[in-house]
Design brief:
Rossmann fold; two-stranded antiparallel ribbon; five-stranded parallel sheet; binds adenosine-5'-diphosphate; binds magnesium ion; 9 strands; 3 domains; Arc Repressor Mutant, subunit A; alpha/beta; 374 residues; 16 helices
Length: 374
């Protein structure tokens, strides 16, 4: 029987747990063509919620066409445009029709047709020959605008913070000027690096200032996991007690990816006679072990004061960090060293402040506890 749990890419359908409230709110924005800024830490489920939303929209015959553009790894305006052109495929079920409507909309640039030799799949990309990118962007936006006159569109730019690193002068501003003209398109700007993405939308000197409804994506609540996990395990005729599911969710502090990762391995265990604590511990340790190289590398990039500050956080459960005894326990001489280290660690998103200071990645936290013998 196929393992229904997955953790290396986005999940939808049966592998997607709940998020009913988020989906319904997002659908409201899509219907109203209201732009949304969807953000969270990495691996909380942004791409998944977008893909699930798109599937539901398609299933409901709402006459709204979704288009998903993955911007991760793009490093220039040209990349942005090329990825977006590839995305146009999603707006037509038929390649000839796509070609036709795109060619009709284009005035100043030529198109290239691409055939993927491996899959035989077809896509289009713009020719950048003898024109500058500004013009190609304009043509792309024209195509989208034309499409949106026939039916509403929802366009997700995933990992949108990437555009902040492009070096082309004024790209954000140009993009924004098109976006604001598109009354029939809901743009979902999705991003992981919170300081980058929120800065793009919250500082008044940036082009996208206040141009989208803020939508922070939280972790998934424990109670939502119970029914979902039980239902999937019942396929194997295994009943997982609610307490066990709560225990797993708590061990990973509700982090969606790690919980799927855990459940994936639990599924592979013979569970007819229930799961012992040893099995639960074994799987948890395997997850920590699997990422230990990544975490060692991260640890080695930190300064000694940052390392001490992490230890300080763990020893004091994230509060009272500046008290003299606490500082002494990790041999940090002054509070100002802590202030400085905290600020760097927050910038790197290794820690977050939520009343108290916390290590953001729960598996990194577990690795630290082991490594520092706490
Ligand atoms: N609604 C969900 N239900 C269950 N697991 C989820 C859900 N959303 C995300 N996950 C888990 O988290 C992982 C990362 O999700 P993803 O959507 O790629 O996050 P992001 O785009 O925020 O980085 C998925 O592979 C899956 O294991
Ligand atoms: Mg993602």
């Amino acid at each position: 029987m196929q393992n229904p749990f997955a953790y290396s890419n986005y999940v939808t359908g049966d592998s997607f747990c709940n998020r009913k409230k988020e989906l319904s709110e997002l659908l409201g924005y899509v219907k109203g063509s209201q732009n949304v800024l969807l953000y969270s830490h990495r691996r909380y489920g942004k791409s998944s919620v977008i893909q699930q939303l798109f599937q539901e929209i398609k299933g409901k015959n709402l006459n709204i066409s979704p288009m998903y553009v993955e911007l991760y790894g793009t490093i220039s305006e040209k990349d942005f445009i090329t990825r977006s052109f590839h995305g146009l495929n999603q707006l037509e079920s038929n390649f000839e029709r796509l070609l036709q409507s795109v060619s009709n909309a284009l005035k100043k640039i030529k198109l290239n047709l691409n055939i993927d030799p491996a899959t035989g799949g077809t896509s289009i990309s713009p020719s950048f020959e003898a024109v500058n990118e500004t013009l190609v962007l304009e043509e792309l936006m024209n195509i989208l605008s034309k499409y949106s006159q026939k039916r509403k569109l929802v366009i997700a730019f995933d990992e949108f913070q990437e555009i902040a690193n492009y070096t082309e002068e004024g790209f954000e501003k140009r993009l924004r000027s098109f976006v604001q003209q598109h009354q029939n398109i809901c743009y979902i700007f999705s991003g992981s690096q919170q300081h980058l993405i929120t800065e793009m939308f919250n500082s008044h000197n940036r082009a996208f200032y206040k141009s989208a409804e803020s939508f922070p994506l939280d972790k998934i609540e424990s109670r939502h996991y119970i029914f979902w996990v039980q239902k999937l395990f019942s396929r194997k005729h295994i009943h997982l007690p609610a307490e066990l599911i709560e225990e797993i969710v708590a061990r990973f502090e509700n982090h969606p990816m790690y919980i799927q990762n855990f459940l994936f391995h639990l599924w592979e265990e013979p569970g007819e006679r229930g799961f012992s604590n040893d099995i639960i511990d074994k799987i948890e340790n395997a997850i920590i072990e699997k990422r230990s190289l990544e975490h060692t590398v991260l640890w080695e990039t930190l300064s000694i004061n940052q390392k001490k500050t992490l230890k300080l956080i763990l020893l004091n459960d994230g509060s009272n960090l500046f008290n003299a005894d606490s500082l002494k326990s990790v041999t940090l001489k002054t509070g100002s060293l802590v202030t400085k280290a905290l600020s760097s660690l927050m910038k790197k998103e290794i820690i977050v402040k939520n009343g108290k200071y916390m290590i953001q990645d729960i598996v990194f936290k577990k690795w630290l506890q082991k490594t520092l013998s706490l």
